[in-house]
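Standup, Tuesday
Yesterday: got the pipeline producing structure tokens again.
Today: sanity-check two examples.
Blockers: none.

Example 1:
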Amino acid sequence: MNEKTVETSHGQIAVYDTPGDQLPVLMIHANSVCKETFHFQIEALTGKNRIIAVDLPGHGQSSDAVDPLHTYNFDGYADAVCEVIETLGVNRFAILGHSLGGHVALELMRLLPEETAGTMIFGTPPIPPGPAGAALGFLPNPQFAYTGKEVLTKQEIDMVVELALGSDAVPDEFWKTTVRRTDGRSRKLMIDAALSGKHLDQRALVENSAVPLAVINGADDPVINLDYIDSLKFRSLWARGAVRLENAGHGLHWQKHREFNSLLDSFLATIT
């Protein structure tokens, strides 16, 4: 696995870039974690697909944003990833996006429709902008209340890890360190931007985009309104429909990685 740093106008972006003969897969992680959360997917695809896993600005081994107000929102993150893709010379790729990373993936679908061969999102409701949109896609849950907090307590750090990866990951100090490392401004400014209606209408995007889209969620996700997702009129939804993976929550790629990886393989086969 090759790690490198890509200079962008948003700051230095840490990237895993591994070779592969098949379609490159761009992986974008959830809020307050890092690219290593895709360990099982990287392990499964290594030697087949080129893998490009990024740490978003303010996360993991990337630098904090040069201009936090400009970068810490769906559009800003997507623009930073676009610069990475351009620097790496990748002309066509699939996207795998988790939670916040799924929202960034949707923006990339909008920005780079010709380059995006297909997108798989999980833990990500495609929502209209503003608080009304957030109320449609997300369930009222105390476990989600900390996502916009700049400073987290020890208990809230554990909650971030549990939501992102499941309860089995909470004792692992690596993930707690990852959450503590995250620029707290990234949480606050991202939520502020989403609730102020700064991002474009992602519900309208999935209703109109011709880019193949897979939507996977844990059947027991505590923060995503799965009925809302089922109500959407997708233009290019994967033939399997909006999948609910049984006995999994928000971090289904970690909790049920074998089943998740099987779905990922099947989707990649359909778009290549």
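Example 2:
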Amino acid sequence: MTNAFHEGPDEAQLREFQDAPAASTSKLIDFDDASVIMLKTNPPQFILRVKGVKQWSNMKVDLVPLVYVRQPEYWGIEVVGTLSGVGLPIETPYDVSLNVTGTLGTRGVEVVGATKRERIDVIAGTGPAEGDWTAFFNRQPPGPFTLTVTGRLQMPTPGYKVTLTKTAPQGINPRDLLLDLTITPPSGPVIQVVTEVEVVYRERTESGYDTVTILPGGPSIKVEEVS
């Protein structure tokens, strides 16, 4: 894993910042689940997703990276709840995400809640291609016979465009169809809500395939037949 880190404040500046009074409207809150998604863009992007239950329905939940003088082993990301105005004490699920590409430690991130911490190792071999995939070959008459490949992928925000195209040239195995997965991020501002995106590829073919492999580095999917 490669991560460029730029020097931040010196130690005196950091101590001055840490000694400043804490805000009374923002507090650490707990979380139930945390994970990191790697988007196979160029260069790759890493998205931290955190889910839990907040005690106040009108509380705003943010993921806030800690400040360091030098790159740590695990970069701390605090789960912060901010309450303003009249609080509505109703338990409400939350699901927030943050692009942590520029705030990765040498090994990963550490999610920090009110009473728990969780370290996540960031491994550059996981990504959106490892989603929910199906492939089937329809031989039902009257034809034409059609191969359909479907994937459901988790994106960090709405607005991502996901496409599958036939790889050119194909590989040495004619029974293994190679498809290129292309992910294009949104160009404008979007809300930070993890969104499921469906991508579909169809091809008319008489010979059929045994497997479909998603590139780059994706899974190899067994082709089922509908007859």
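Quick observation on example 2: The chain has two domains: 11-121, 132-226. Helices lie at 11-18.
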